[in-house]
Queue: 4 jobs
Job 1
Amino acid sequence: MVVTTTSLFPALIAGEIFQKQFKTRHRMINRKNKKNRDEYLKYLLERLGQGELSINTKRSRLNHLLIWCDETKFEFIPKRQEIFRQYVNELIKPNGKPQAPGYKRDLMQEAKRIFEWLAVHKGYRLVTPAWLDTFTYKIKSNERNHLKSVAEQEIKFMANLPTKTLREQRARASALFLFASGARASAFATLPIKAVNLKNLEIYQWTSLGVRTKNRKSATTFILNIGTILDIIKEWDKLVRLKLPPEAPWFAPISSTSLDFDTHKTTIGKHRARAVNKDLEIFGMRNGFQDFFTPHDFRRGHANFLFGRAIDMADLIAAQNNLMHTSLTTTEMYARQRQEQTRKRISIMSGRDTSIQSKGDLSSQMLLEEIIKIKQILKKER
């Protein structure tokens, strides 16, 4: 028995254009496949305790698998010569451009996980390790070079977006914080409330506080002083301080049942940074963004914001320190600035107009060369 995609998924990944291989307008979906999909999601929710936000994201991704399988049952799909990767590779956005490599990888991983579950819980013998290998998706090196960056105008637009739920409020605050701080996702997700000092615009990315930084490096970094962005960050900061203890994560856990702060979760999971990424993805989808931004896109946005306002080498060193980079090629010849100097530089650049850059004591060409080198470092970061 089958049902049509139009009756099942009226809002299937809003506006997404389906591929040329689907010549009929109403692609058929096997009802048993949908039932298996729903059972799998229920298992993740009730048995493994995954959050509602995570389940909704997985449901959206698995819609693609249902469409690809068409009328073929999951248990017999390994007999097909066509593999899921072929479908995923042809996915396009509403603007006609290819889907992002990271999005394709996530679709493949989610499809692989449900088949692993089916093999164990439903006894699907055709689902073999060799066949599951066809769900591997590696991002090519040339695809990694096309990296997004959140622009100042985009982050200010996000600051003005309305929020209806606590999760949406958290997602918006997270996006603004990531841009304003330039922090990596792993560090941001593990920041305790007491590590955020908005009065002094300081973030204590210290391993002694449990913050998971790259190479276990500790540093005090600084938040951009941009009023419209900072106001929203302060709203969330005030809320979590009222509800949670100082040791609780600033990216506060939310209960999937009460939809309020989960005061029972006192430890931070190993993969907490994934929750940040999922928050941003769903927040972007609900607000009509064609491309959802990853935490690192906000980090690059922070870097580009500072690069556009740097007028001398000291400014670039301040940007380096705030990004917690160990070195900046040519800047190694300069003495490392003290923390107070970095604070002052970041604060000044926050309010500086980009047009002043040409008035600095370094030639525009030299600054450009240094900025290009720094961006190459950012590209290699994951």
Job 2
Amino acid sequence: MRNKKMEQISTIYNEAVQLIKSAILQNQLDAAKAVNQQMLALYYGVGKYVSENTRHGTWGTGAIETISKQLRRELPGLRGFGASNIKNMRQFYETWSPCLNRQPVAGDLQQTENESSLPIKELLSVNRQPMAGDIDWHDFFSISFTHHCEILSKTKTVSERAYYIHQAATLHWDKYTLRDYLKADLYHHQAKMPNNFAKTLPSTSHALKAISMFKDEYLLDFINVEEIGERDPQDIDERIMENSIVAHVKNFILTFGKDFIFMGNQVHIDKFGHDHYVDLLFFNRELQCLVVVELKRGAFKPAYLGQLAAYIRILNDDERKPYENPTIGIVLCRDADKTYVEYLLQDYNQPMGVATYRVMPEQLRKVLPPEEEIKKLLSGEEI
């Protein structure tokens, strides 16, 4: 009886510890984010002050170096205010100030009365200009100044910067990972298909290959809606689609991309007595990995990712060769909200993407000339 009571008390104490621990960790995270936000605001304010005095003011050559040295003499142990970093603050301000539109704040009045005050709250009171509409400001304040400097040094447009800021914030890239993807020019190599390859694949180069390998939408024009007796493409059954793809697998591979080898359809995999059947299984020679394609006739549903993750896990454990890269999974469905898909993919550690498909409408198929005639027209031959 006493032992049982002690166990109950121990359980209660353990729950209390976990609850408090969770609160502490969350508080530490919130505090770190708040500190980072304040530091970015400080650097932006210093950058503005330095910009106005070096670009349009009376400061001469060498002013930044002189000010940096004196700051470090008067504040021993001060870090982050070397001459090169102060110049980075100036670039930070000059790059982002055209994108920001802010309302007047109390600090403005203070600065008018006291010219020695720096506009350190300016960055915290901004509204977005249309040109900065792609920027997620939560992401902006989530990454360090070092990350911002890396991005500013390697990008030219707001869209590029917004992309790398979002990826670094949501995927928790350290500065070395960010440098790798900036060097590889991930922004210009990305496909539009929502995916988590940058987070889940073993190397930058492999992730880039995978990203460029898949499209966000595929035209399955070899699926003849009339032949399979369906009038509305939305009513096409998944198995009918699958059979049509298998019957035209050469065309599908040409649509999907190069280096795909068809391994089979309805491939049976078993784990702990539970049977699973993979719709379409390929091997990609360039990526050196298995590729699972799950066909869905309707719009995307979150459950599809869980199903796909299970297939990938089993294939990696039981079918993947030691020299092969991790299996990649693709959900191919009729429609998908890309933003929603990207949001959900963040919690998965298996490499996956979601693409959509279109089939050729029956009416269009009827009015088009035969395929051979189209080829002759394109080549300039007489029909």
Job 3
Amino acid sequence: MSVFIGKDRKARRSYGFDEIALVPGDVTINPEEVDISMPLGKMTLPIPFLASAMDGVVDPKFAVAMGKLGGLAVLNLEGIYVRYDDYETILDEISKASPEKATQLVQKLYVKPINEKLIAKRIREIKKAKVPCAVSAIPQRAERFGKIAEEAGADVFVVQSTVTTVRHIAKAYQVVDFKKFCKKMKIPVVLGNCVTYKVALELAETGAAALLVGIGPGSACTTRGVLGIGVPQVTAIADCTAAREYYYKKTGKYVSIIADGGMSTGGDICKSIASGADGVMVGSAFARTKEAPGRGFHWGMATPHANLPRGTRIHVGTTGSLEEILYGPARLDDGTQNLVGALRTSMGNVGAKNIREMQLTEIVIAPAIKTEGKLFQSAQKLGMCK
């Protein structure tokens, strides 16, 4: 439904996580008996959780830990791990920088050229632990890095930019043909990011195994403030999953939707799945783990941009181990730990046996859902009102 925002100009109403709630089902299920696995090409992930390709979240050691717990961590092939052999000292520098100088320091450190030999080295470090390996690159480097990653043994290749479309126009550089690229790659390709039905459908038609949905919602991302673009995640996910369903009915090919960004609690993750996502890509929640390389800090992928940074370094702290964040036991009262348990429990309460059934959950518009009746939590800044 559109409303007038001025004379002869309409805008469509859109929704974010804090504006909706999930309606409990007529039938409930034991949370331990629901299936939360997620398809990704020919792979199946035991849990529908991916760690964002951000340097404060994923290094090779974190990727191994995530893989052993059933999830999938994406290593950034544009980041410090392929620019510096000894990256620990670089991480120390970034974590010790003052807030005023952090962005300039990150920009300076990321000027060092990418060492392609380190791409293969990092992938082998992950594969040595016998866990799935996923890596990410921007479209301009997809052809070159995709070949290196595939030969080194990567299992998933992610092509990611602020906004990714099939019909990109450029004269200064060669535009990647996603249909040819996906056909040539022998491993699943994930494309992103997108937020609209039409773009999602065109990306699905390239042969991608999955799409990343989300522009600017991440806690360390400043795209919405710098560029003014983005669509609230609930609406973006719903629109893109509509494209997935149309494409599936038309071709019989299922393209997974991965909600990327904007989820800080288990409730947000449950709402993402109910809105239509097959899985979630999370950054800040995992940046807070003991295994994360950021030393309690987290910065966006576009923070190093030389001319127009669209991210910032934020302090998230360290609240627990990766296992505690994923599986508990939760030691905090704000919904940021035991994310898998939250998803299972929510699915049990809405009566969803699997992710596909969770996507059919009834949703209501409820902007006061997090604050209704929470007077004491609000006054004392506890639980949902921190």
Job 4
Amino acid sequence: MLTDYRSTIYHCLKCGACKQAFDIYMPICPSGMKYGFDSHYAIGRISLARAIIDGEINLDTALMHRVYTCTHCGACDEQCHNAVGVDPLRVIQELKYEAVDKGLIPPEVRDYLKNMNVYGNPYMLPAEDRGKWSLNLDIKSFANQEYLFYVGDMGSYDALGQQIARSVAKALAAAGISFGILGDKEMTDGNEVNLVGEKGLYEYFATANINLFKELGIKKIITLSPHAYNAFKNDYPAWGGDFEVQHYSQILAQAISNKKLKVKGIEKVKVTFHDPCFLGRHNKEYDAPRQILKAIPGVELVEMERSRNNALCCGGGGGNFFTDMLGSGTKSPSRIRVHEAIDTGAKIIATTCPKCFNMLDDAIKAENAEDQITIKDLSQFLL
């Protein structure tokens, strides 16, 4: 309940630390940058929570619309925790839980959850289609291989996500990694279901996955998406899901380091890396993707001004990729991020998240910047 976070809420000093990355003094909150009002920053959302528990206002759908523009990127936690020891995301998440419990969610969130409840995925497609991304590839169903390669909803159903799933699978095979897939047995990881506030449905998906993994004897998992990585690594243990989980960039970096994966050189090019929030800030993995890029002959890695723990979110987290609560426009974080990448002199943005890939790919097109920069998944450099 929101009242369980009374101490955290009352500790907010309204100092504005949640708005800026102070070591570089640049804006860091995607929704705050876009809308400009305190109600779209952590400072405003904590003030809202305080007013609710003090009985000054009642929660309603209009207020929750402001809360749901949060991408759950973790930037406010990164800044606020270091400044005053407050973790705003816990409060924001609890606001969403209460909104779901009271039926006060915006229509966009309602429709997303309906699709997840009815279809088990946001694309409204049958489970039988989940394995189609692997057609014409020599990939076996999981049957006691060392690793499960979990591709998730985007790797299964999204066109660009399928391309990334195929390139990662080829890289894993080239590295001699023993892995299998679940195909039509795979279910959503549920990370975004939780982030929009439906903890009951999240627990259902989590326990169903855990039971399936244990039934099949799965002990080690490689994820395509940082979002699934976050769910399996940080949330599933609470329900007995203790698995060894790695994001694909981590295992490929190890394979390159151990000389199990040969890296081909490419024509000289400047590349900048976009840190996915759920790989970087939420799970502190900044080095593995950069190790891979630095190992590729011809790649010159250049950093954006906001990078690593200060990286600007693409805008697709917290369910926003499917609900579009943050909205589009010239102030959308993905379009700002594209210009930040161009300013480095890079010709390619590399990333390791299907959601980030889609968001930045769309932003490049929206900015008519296709002749200036392109985007590639990290695995696509290795083929």
